[in-house]
Recover the amino acids of this structure.
């Protein structure tokens, strides 16, 4: 690579940008749309997951059932199937908007319908119906995730813009998580859970508007149109290419050993976070922490920690390389999760710092640390996975990676309620939660080991930069 002065610049080192340049780039229409699409992608995620667990726990549903209902997110395990569909098929009617935009709009409308259906289903009287609508929401949310990820990667004009779009997506996604973990508690306190779910279903209009304003990725669309024309002549081969082709290309590009190592690391990376997820809100209830307090801490300290983690993750990725950021993220995640055991051992929240009427509590500190760790690790992993796809297979390959990410977590977290109930035998409920959080944190150890092996075998240098250039 040659810079403007004619001298050679290392391929893995992006040009330095001043803070003003970065802030100015946030005003780009494409980045603003990515922010809105990230919000839309994150909006349903907690509503059929951890936040649903809060609603169920308040209505007296047993912990085992709460854990099992977290399996509403199982469609995320099959995102590579939805990826094959959105890479190859145009929808009737909505397909006029384009391959990517048509799928975006269809999935967003289905998410809205699923959330409204959940709002109309009371857990005490219509638990099965609620579960069905939760699965519908999960299916539509997984499809929306798949197509938005493809649009993000294919719309980037260069590696730097890909990083910017990834940060905007992460920021929008985290904003949606704050809204569906914190703001919804205030709304539910005032209006009830059913009305809260209905209002958040209506909030999907944010993503719908962004999808209608977005532009189709021209270069990727040309590749997919060419594949569609070839499919007309060889329909049998087209089906194989749509489903198996992306996997074969991925393993051929990276090699069998390296691709297996990558998938293993991705599979385990967020497992500790997945495992504790369904029990988080029931744990806070057991601690005696009220909905307004949880909402306030999530919307202030939690949001601040998330923003700091996202910014720090992006900075470390740019300055020190994506693999170093991955290692750091793998280390800080279990630390943040294990810290919650302190609250269990102390029997509730307690003051850390008191200054006159102001009190800074352990719950606030731990929530901030946890949010920072998850924000950092999320940016690091998304940035890394975004470098691994090939044009023409973007949706399917990235969906394969995210399916690998979710597979163990979304499968095993369904047993989290049973684990806490078993630990509860012979000890207090809070002691059981303390052991549960320590166990969840320990699950992060294999991910740290695999990240270290990957960093040693694949330096975050020219190969990652080359992948970025091939992606864009």
């Amino acid at each position: 690579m040659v810079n403007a002065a004619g001298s050679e610049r290392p391929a893995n080192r992006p040009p330095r940008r001043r803070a003003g340049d970065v802030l100015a780039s946030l005003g780009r229409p494409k980045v603003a749309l990515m922010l809105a699409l990230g919000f839309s992608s994150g909006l349903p995620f907690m509503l059929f997951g951890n936040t649903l667990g809060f609603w169920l726990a308040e209505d007296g549903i047993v912990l085992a059932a709460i854990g099992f209902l977290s399996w509403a997110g199982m469609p995320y395990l099959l995102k590579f199937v939805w990826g094959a569909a959105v890479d190859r098929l145009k929808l009737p009617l909505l397909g006029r908007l384009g391959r990517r935009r048509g799928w975006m709009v269809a999935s967003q409308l289905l998410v809205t319908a699923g959330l409204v259906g959940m709002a109309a289903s009371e857990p005490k009287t219509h638990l099965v119906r609620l579960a069905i609508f939760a699965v519908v929401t999960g299916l539509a949310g997984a499809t929306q995730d798949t197509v938005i990820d493809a649009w993000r990667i294919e719309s980037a004009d260069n590696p730097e813009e890909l990083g910017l779009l990834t940060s905007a997506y992460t920021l929008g996604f985290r904003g949606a998580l704050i809204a569906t973990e914190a703001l919804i508690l205030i709304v539910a306190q005032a209006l009830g859970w059913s009305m809260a779910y209905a209002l958040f279903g209506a909030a999907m209009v944010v993503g719908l508007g962004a999808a209608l304003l977005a532009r189709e990725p021209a270069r990727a669309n040309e590749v997919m149109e060419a594949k569609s024309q070839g499919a007309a002549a060889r329909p049998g081969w087209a089906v194989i290419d749509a489903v198996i082709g992306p996997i074969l290309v991925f393993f051929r590009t990276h090699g069998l050993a390296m691709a297996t190592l990558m998938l293993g690391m991705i599979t385990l990376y967020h497992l500790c976070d997945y495992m504790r997820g369904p029990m988080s809100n029931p744990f806070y209830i057991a601690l005696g922490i009220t909905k307004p307090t949880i909402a306030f801490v999530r919307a202030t300290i939690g949001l601040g920690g998330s923003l700091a983690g996202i910014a720090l993750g992006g900075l470390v990725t740019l300055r020190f390389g994506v693999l170093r950021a991955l290692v750091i993220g793998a280390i800080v995640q279990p630390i943040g999760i294990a810290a919650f055991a302190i609250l269990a051992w102390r029997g509730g929240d307690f003051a850390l710092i008191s200054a006159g009427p102001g009190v800074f509590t352990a719950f606030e500190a731990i929530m901030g640390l946890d949010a920072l760790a998850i924000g950092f690790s999320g940016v690091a992993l998304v940035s890394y996975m975004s470098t691994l796809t090939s044009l023409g297979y973007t949706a399917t390959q990235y969906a394969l990676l995210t399916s690998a990410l979710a597979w163990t977590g979304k499968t095993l977290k369904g047993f989290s309620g049973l684990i806490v109930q078993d630990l509860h035998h012979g000890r207090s409920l809070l002691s059981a939660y303390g052991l549960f959080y320590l166990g969840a944190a320990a699950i992060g150890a294999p991910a740290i080991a695999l990240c270290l092996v990957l960093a040693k075998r694949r330096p975050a240098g020219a190969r990652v930069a080359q992948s970025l250039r091939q992606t864009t």
About this structure: The first helix runs from residue 19 to 25. The chain has one domain: 27-221+239-471. Confidence is low (pLDDT under 50) at residues 1-23, 459-472. The chain has 25 helices and two strands.
